[in-house]
Each structure stands twice: as C-alpha cells, then as structure tokens.
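Input set for joint prediction.
Command: fold jointly, output tokens.
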Amino acid sequence: MRFEDEVGRALRLTAGAYSTEQRLLAERSLARGRRRVARRRIAVAGGSAMAAALVAVAGVQWGGLGDGGGRGNPAASSGSDHDYRRFSVTREEMKNILSNGMERAGVATAHPEVTAAGSSGPGRPATASFDFGDGWGRARVTLSVRRVDPAQPGLKKLITCPPRAGSLYEECTTQSDNRAVKGYTGAGKAGGVKKWAVTMLSSNGYVIDVATYNIPSPATASAAPGARAEGTPTADVWLTPTAAASSPDPATSLSRNPRMNPGKLRFLAMYVDASFTGTGDPNPFATVTPGSRPEPGDILPVLKSLLPKRLHIYSEGGTGADGHVVVVDPEKGDTTYIQAVRTAGDKEFWSQTLPDGTKVGTRRTAGEQPGVIELRADALRVNGLWMSLTAYNAPSPTSKKRGAEPAVTLDELKAMAVSRAWLLAR
Amino acid sequence: MEFAAGSGGHLYRSACLLTSGDTHLAEDLVQETLSRMYALWGRISRIDNPAAYAQTVLVRTFLTQRRRYSASERPLADVPELPVPHGADDPALRLALLQALRELPPKDRAVVMLRYWEDRTVEETADAMNVSAIAVRSRSSRALAKLRARLGGSLAELAGSG
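tokens >
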C-alpha cells in the first residue's frame, strides 16, 4: 500500500473515533448563526451611527451589572455556548428536581404533595410547589426557574437588596455568588405570614427563586393553595396579600419562622442551579425518581461529566461513594488515574474559602512509585459534603509513572472538586 | 437545521483532524462554520454541493483562527513526552498520528486533511485554501515526508488494523 493510502486510511480510522451530539451541535451553531444575522441586521438597519449608539447604550447597561463575573461583556455573551432562548423542562422533571432537592437539603417532610408546571421557552418560568408537614403544621416550598441571558439589563436588582429604609423586606442579605436571601412578612389577619426566599442568578442563565412559608392545614384552608404567580420574578413565589388575607387563618403559627431555615433554602437554590445545564435542559442526575436508590458507581457519571473534554477515557470504575477513570491526554500521550471520593472526614488542609462558604484545599505530593506525582483537591461544602479528587501520572495509584505530569492540572482538579454537580450525586 | 444536523458529524471529525484532537476547538470550529453557513444560507442553498462548501468554510475558518492565535502562542520549553506505539490495536497509534499532525504547520495539516481525508484533488484543495496548485503539491509532499519520518511503519500497522 502506498504511504498516501496508508495516511488516508489512518485518518479515516482516527477521525471515525470521534463522535459528538449532533443535534446539540446543530442547535448551538444555529443559535450562533442567528446572533450573527441579528448583529448584521442591526448594523444594516440602523447605519453605523445608530449601531454605535446602540453599542454605547448597551455598554452602559451591561456595565451596570457590576460583579457579573464577566457576564457584562457582550462579546463573552455572544461567544458562549449557552443558548439563552432555549429552555425545556417537563412538569415531571420539575417535580423530581424539587423533591430531590428537598431530600438532599435534609428537611424532614411528612405527607408531601408536589405540584409543578414545566416550560418550553424563556417566556414562561417553570414552577414547582412542595407542601409538607414539618411536625408543627403544614409548610410550603416553592420553586421558580426562569431562563434569562445573564447579560440582560435589570437582572442585577433581583439579587441586590434595596436600601433598608422603606424596604419590603424585614431582613435582606445580598450575598456573593449572585444571590440574595430575603425575609418578609406577607399580609394576613393573624399577624401575617413569615416567608423566606432566596433569589439566585445562575451563571448558566437562569433566575432561580426558592421560597418557604407556613400554610394553613388543608382542613382549615381552601384559599392558600390558590397562591398564584405575580408579574415580578421574586414575587411569583409569594402569596399575594389578597390571597393570604382571604385565607381562613386561625393559627398564629403562620407568623412563626418556617422550619426550613434560610441556610437550607440557600442549599436548595444551589441544588437547583446544578440541576440545569447551560443548554437549557435539566441535568439527568437531578431528575431521577425521588427516593430511588443510588446506582452502583453514582459518583462515576458525575466525575465523567466534569472531566476536561480533551481527555480520552480508557477505563472506569467505582462504587456508590467513589469513582475513578484512567484517561489519556491525546496531546501528550500521558496516562492519568483520576479518582473522586465522597469522604466523611480526613486530614484538613484548607487554603481558600469560596464566596458560597465552600472550603478548598489543594496539594501536590510524591506518589508511591518513583516519579509519580499525586495531585489532590478537596472541597468541603457548608452542608458537609466533602469531595476529594486525586490524580496520578500513572494508570493506578500504585503503578509506575506514565508521563511526566498528570494529564490534569491542579487548577482543573480544583474546578472539578468545587463543581455543584456533586450535589446531585446520590 | 436539517443541513446542520446532517453535516455536523462529518464536519466535526474533519475539525478534530485539523485541531489534532482538540475537541473543544473542533466543536467551536464547527459551530463557527455552521453559523456562517446559516447567515449566508440564501446564497449557499443555490450552490450545488453545500456540504463541500461547508468543508471549505471550515478550513478557511481554521486557518484564519490559527493566524490570530499564532501571535499569542508561546513555544513550550520542553517537548511533551510522546506516546510510544505498541501494537495495531493500541489507541496510542492513533494518538501518535494526532501528535504527528499537530507537529505540522496548520496549512500543511489542512492540505493533508483535504487531500487524504476528503479525497480532494490538488486543484480542489488549492481552491478551498485560496492558494496555488503548486503550493498544494509542495506542502503535500513536505507534510507526507514529515509524517513518514515521524510515524514510519507504525502507520502501516494502524492502517492495516482497520
């Protein structure tokens, strides 16, 4: 066989090993194409002067977003893989996300009743409501997820507490990580209904609202379940003053603090954040049937989803609490063993605390065999979840080295360890 | 949408060869290519072979991007450790091919991809790359010589294993 033919055949074999999700690729391409056409139309329709004015105005509005973590940059927005006009989640998926989130938040729930509505576009938020007995009566947790472009002007105010004077909220904290925690008492005959809400602007392009408050027991209340959405994103999780006032509310218990405290509500918001992908779809890990038992190796799929895409997976394995992969970096040919473990406590070596309270520690040590390097990144979340990721430049922790360095860097390992996707692993 | 979904897979594999296995960059290249096709679809749909035209757009986009990136690229101090081919069924052989492609200049890589993966003639390759046929022949023979020196008999093993 001629060398040219050998090259051709080798190229076909090599290229044939690559595959991609074609539908997703096509959708992202078309989204980018639409943006390209829209930009061109603006330029053509308005002329250069008008386009310059638009850019100036947009610049002011985007600039006003402040700490958007680069979201204020229109170039970053248009170059992103996110298609903020796409949103698709079913009613059943919303029910499962909220139910799984409540379970993972560690809230004791008796006789839960879950209702939900899905969404098929950014014009309509997907919602879910979870009524349950908390031992002192009935309580409700509501969830609203709305698809947005994080660069959209006006979103910042949703996660910024207003000045205290004249504020609607009795307590309000603007937190880093694009989040606000709000305490509020709605109108009610028996002294009002105490509510807590967390509003979060997800970097994946969602406004997430979770709220909780006590509700009358089903026997005494008929109006409360009729709580309905209002126009504003934050208001759609509250009882309207009218609805609350009309409820036959004999119990002053409605004015007490809900059993689900703001910390757990904050966790729920983070769980929901992890439950939706940048492409507008729910994460399959979050929509599993509530209460289902973990699959053997539940950590493994999450680990695989977080790996840098340049790496090829050679082998994989794991149990419920850990997962490992052996990967090859095609650029260097290095073989690397990467392990993820959900630990229950280990030697602490924290070096950093993230805005959401997660403690992070990284270290680089020598492995068992000569030349083997062990990279380790641990992340301890405020809810106690401790993920430990380790990488060796060898096919296993006890093997001889295969490559000068592990195929992942310590920064990549750290990014994997702090990912909220671990919240979804059962 | 149908065109994008139908041609995306082949474009992606071509892009993987052009980028020597960098799947992130390959996806970005395909998205950029298809988005350009979308913006020009009124004109493109009158072209006889939109799929071939998409390949041309892909190659030109790749070469344009490489020109932009090259100004900010810095050479590595150490040459990365190279995989050693073991046998016909060893994926390391494929990795070795990707590594060998990576060592070619971007234009040579584009010539190899168009000539031996796309099976285009010298003239078609020249047209796609906006260069002369002589330049294509010259780049082609130089690239093959480098691949032969780099891969030698390993390539015959890989080709034979398919």
